[in-house]
Queue: 2 jobs
Job 1
Amino acid sequence: KTAHEIELMREAGRLLNIVHKELEAAIRPGISTWELDKLGERVIRGFGCVPNFLNYNGFPASFCISINDEVVHGIPSKEKILHEGDIVSIDTGAAVHGWNGDNAATFACGAIAGNAQHIMDVTKEALARGIAAAQPGNRVGDIGAAVQQYVEANGLSVVRTFVGHGVGRKLHEDPEVPNFGTAGHGPRLVAGMVIAIEPMVNEGTHVVKEQPDGWTIKTADGKLSAHFEHTIAITPKGPAILTQQA
Ligand code: MG
């Protein structure tokens, strides 16, 4: 990607950062995931942008909002109400002049149990370690190995069925960026690449199951899952996070 294209994706990332802050502030027991979806959509449209998940392969909402044992792709719903102690993963995307950003984080609803805090902390740190491995000259497998080693050393598992990806004009581009793998293997990372690194981490088995709605993915054993994602650019100086600004 050119410097200009990366700048547009940074704009998209800045917008998603605002969305995440607004949604985090709105999370409380009693709010529905539909309300969170509408709130975030208003923020994106307020900037004259479009939520790029809406209608993506027919997805019926602006964001994927996944609670507790839901891993990814939860459909916002008036029936899905947050309760004290839940963890809620919010995956957001927006495009600026056709260039995409993709950003996810897991948030606590009120006071949460120790195991819920642990999976959130480990997943967030695993993302940081994956990003640190995204140096020009390294390979995609270096990212996956860094994420997997940290997660498994902390007694948790990484989802295999869903992976990170390139980002650009399209929300999902090559290469795939798995959260597992072998250091030194896979496509070479070069300056100008933009990728989404997005560890999905489970408390128990890494195996996941699609639900009858055709979208929602849950852990096969009903245990918790967390998800953190940043869109990053590979620069000559190292990785630059496009979806997180001070
Ligand atoms: Mg993504």
Note: Helices lie at 3-26, 33-46, 114-132, 140-153.
Job 2
Amino acid sequence: MTNLNRSQAAEAAEDAGSNASPNPTLGEVVAARFHRRDLLRGALAVGAISAVVAPRALAAAQGQTSPFPFRELPAGSDERHHVAEGHEAEVLIRWGDPVLPGAPVFDPRNQTPEAQAQQFGYNNDFIGFFPMPGAQDPAGHGLLVVNHEYTNEELMFPGLGRQDGKAGFAGMSRDLVGIEMAAHGGSVLEVKRVDGRWQVVPDSRYARRITATTPMTLTGPAAGSERLRTKADPEGRQVLGMINNCAGGTTPWGTWLTCEENINYYFGGKLAGDSPEARNHKRLGMPGNLYAWGRFHDRFDLEAEPNEPNRFGWVVEIDPFDPSSVPKKRTAMGRFKHEGAAGILAGDGRYVVFQGDDERFDYVYRFVTEAKVDLQDKAANRDILDRGTLSVARFDADGRGTWLPLVFGEGPLTPENGFRDQADVLVETRRAADLLGATKMDRPEDVEANPKTGKVYVMLTNNAKRKTDQVDAANPRPDNRFGHIVEISPDRRDYAAPGFGWEVLVRCGDPNIAAVGATFSSATTKDGWFGMPDNCSVDGLGRLWVATDGNSAGRTGRTDGIWAMETEGAGRGTGKHFFQVPAGAEMCGPYFTPDDTTFFVAVQHPGEADEEDPKAEPATFEKPATRWPDFDPNLPPRPSVVAITRRGGGRVGT
Ligand code: FEO
Ligand code: CA
Ligand code: CA
Ligand code: CA
């Protein structure tokens, strides 16, 4: 396992949490639709695609032009980042840079938990931007919120290498764990564009670091449940920290939603055999035992504190404009491995948040608030996310779909099935969704609405474990290594409607390898296709941008990055390469300023080894795959946020 990088170790750990529920994969009926729909669309035969999707030449002849007129970036892999011609991509902040006033200078050979807690954390993931109220240039001055998802000890600490749970994390110490805990969580930064260049405002009164020890409140229906109570918190309402915050969202009332994903990795120890939490913890792959935290902190040891895991796996809401505000874990939105929580206003003013549960064979969720959002009085929405309806998606073979509400007492969510109240339904969201017959998806990541078209896009990153007899209409490929994107069309363009239509927008991977079965439009160049869609963003023009996770020289002949993705008209299904990360990195966090003149992206874990390259050595602090962004032989690679702008100004990607 020491040769495995974090992703591989994660996959191994995930197996324990895989969905073992007997939900149907839809069988023959689905297979019938799979063949009919996909053959019609030419999806099974690459050569047939052009018969269905008009090639670019035809589009041009019809007077249609690409919504992405920028010159495409060649795809490849090297130690640096690259952006499409005509754009600048500058590093804004790196792991270890100061966040709080007085933060010590980054010194990775002498790092301490105290220093790390004042500096920018590791593995930046979700990014959100909030314009500064009253600013002269609200698109050039605001707060940037950034998730710090996880840590790579082999790249962060000198002389350590990958630590192995089976070997008792022999190299780890209380201090190293303390640094890891301080490098998790999130950062709030005041940022400003000065003479065209973005910079972090030093010593800002908004600056904040949130870590794995920041006090938080549990709110909503599960708060106070006996299953959330621990020795340190007999009320079940106060929790220390947030962990593995992957993607997220920003709300119209000015708050940051940050989502706890692979929470199982942090827990170790052996749960008592007769624990009432055994089934619950197993469904989440608990304990994942990928970090040594339980060796030094009892609350991360299942034997000592069997309820602590129930206090993680939530959506956390944070007011970035008030550095003293207490983050709130919104239990009404469910507990699972949340990828993100991207929201949009429904026509009637309620807030609708789409959420993916990133695990093979897990689900797509939607939360709809009970109350309407008050856009005139932001404070009136303070606890709006505590009341509402959480639903899970069923994708039917006929191209229709239904949101199935997870409500205690309805359908199978009753005491006979072990649910005593809504708190139980929420703590065990996955099991409740199993019982409702939700559709098992190929790792749902970001789910985002496009306000210009009324459609919703679901990134499904991959699932090599799906067998041929497990394919269904919404997950049509067995051994799905490259993922796909599903497009949801809510009934009557109402995001809160109970029903929707849907179709597969694109199956990802190399369209030139017939066996892959990719369905990019024939206008897509050799640089324009990608695998493993993960995060996404919709800009002000309604254009879809996709960030990927898992492309590499060994796997797809290209690193991860940003690809533009056409969704409308003759060019639908056309990918176009825009940004390339340095070797070993994953692309996260894509987020536009309100005027689309800046596109913030997060370069996560630069320097990890290429897991598909048999010659690649394990990447370490001493021998990383790149030393981006400093290229200083004395410094390890550093996860960093990059600001992309168009040279000479204007909308990015035009
Ligand atoms: Fe944190 Fe779904 O990746
Ligand atoms: Ca997103
Ligand atoms: Ca990711
Ligand atoms: Ca991912």
Note: Residues 6-646 form one domain.
